[in-house]
Structure formats: C-alpha cells, structure tokens
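Predict both folds.
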Amino acid sequence: MTSSGFSQPSEPTPEGRGALGRWFEVRRHPAVWATSVLLALEGLALVVFAVIGALDLLPGRDRVVSVAIALTLSCAAGAWLMLAAAYGVSVGRSWVRGPVITVQVLTGLVGVSFLQGGTTGLGLALVVVAVLGLVGLLSGPVSSFTGRRTYDLDQD
C-alpha cells in the first residue's frame, strides 16, 4: 500500500487467476483511470485517421499516394504508441512518461498552429486534449503509480 491507500502494481506471479485477474486486483486512483482512458481515446482517434487514410488509397480518389501512405503509417504507429501508453499507465509502467509527454507537446503545438490558421474548433480541442493529457500524466497519483520502483539486486 502507498500513502494514498492505493496498491502498487506487483510483479506477476505464476499462480492466481491469470493476467486479467491480476489486472483487476490492483486498485487504481481515478486520475490513473482518467489518464489511461484519455490516452486510449487519443489512440482510437488515430486508428480512425489511419483507416480514413487507408481508404484514401482506394482507386478513383484524388490523392498523392506517397503522402497518403506516409500519413496512414504515421497514424497507425501513433495509434499503437498511444494505446500501448494507455495500457502502460493502467498497469503502472514508468516508460510511458517520455512518449506521452512528447506526443502531448506535439499535439498542443499542432493545436496552436490550427488556432493561428483560423481553425478554432479543432485547434482548441487539440490544445485542451494536450493539456489534459499532460496534467493527468504529471498529477501526483499518476506519477506515484507509474513511478520507477527499485528492487534489491537479488530480485533482479
């Protein structure tokens, strides 16, 4: 137990109910859930954009094939990263912080660019999502839940 009363994720044990059962056994702070859900929604939005990009590659559409392929692959890779990060936050992995902070900063910069270009609705939505993602990830409960834990050398 931590000082906040929520249990830290433990090392997997061979006995028990399996990975899914162990996943449900760990109590998570609502901020951990909210951050994980926000990152998963960002990942799902990128999946939608990847599918739209793939559909743009169908014959009979006006497009530049190399740009459509690059955008589709970028969205697919970003979706994989954000969905993996959402899972990582939910199980308390410390590796998620770097990629998520990078993606949120870039999302915020793209949102500001949209705002300056006159696309207010989309720009504002991107900035709000980026700020919420950063605030959630850097909040106390999420930071302590995803914090790096050290082990004795004999446990390594």
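Second protein follows, with its predicted structure tokens after the sequence.
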Amino acid sequence: MRLRVHRRRFRTSLGEFRRRRVLVPYGENGAALTVETHAARWLLAFTDEAALARYARARGEGDRVWRYRTVWGAAVLDAGVPAVAEAGLPCGVLVDAGDGERGMVLPPVVGIVPEAVAVDRPGNDGGPESGTGTGTGVRGVQDMDSGAET
C-alpha cells in the first residue's frame, strides 16, 4: 500500500515537473551544466532562482554569476537528456539539487526519459561508457531569456 502511494506521488511530481518552466544553468560554452556520478551524467534543473542560489551557496560559489535558460521540464526530459546522453553516459535530471528532501531525482529509466536513452530499455546491455561533466566559470545568476541578473 505505501509503495503504491509513493509511486502515485512520484508520478504526480513527475507530471508537475514536465508541465512547469524550470531554470537550466549553462556554462561558458553554452552547454547545460551537468554533474557526473555513479557512471551517469545528471542535468541540473531548478524550480526557481532561490533554489539555484541555494545550490550555488552549497557549492561555495554563491558569489559568482550563474547563467541559465528557462525551459519546460518536458523539454529537459525529452530533448535535453537525449542530447547529453549522446556523449555515451546515461543521463537523468537532478531537480533542485542541494535542497535535500525538497529536491527530486529523475533517473534515466523508461517512463521518465525517452526509451531510446533509458538504461532499462528493452535490449540495453547496461554497459555505460565513461565521460566527463560540463563546468562553467561565470558569476551570479542571470536569466538569459529576460537578461535579469540576481
């Protein structure tokens, strides 16, 4: 019973993420920022500027500008994840990374990311390749859609 409730809540949260606009920080090269851990790459997405600022402070980088694009959560999952996965590692999404229980992990599995890049897709041998994360050297938080800096 509890597992069923948990799954229903997760599906609801996933649907809400897909339907909302999220902030996706990017580096000087224009690529979305990712982190790499446990043989997977993770796109970073934040529900608002405050969540992005908390992440920056948790990294000890709260005094630099963090540039971001505002995109639909569905676009992050349906287009961003496959684009990052092309580099050879499975890719999921970390929503509000650094926010503890308020954050959400969207792993690279069927039903969350497109089946073609899901680690549990039919016929997948499960052998991830190695790669590296993307970094940035910019300061603060800047919305590239509006040009506003916080």
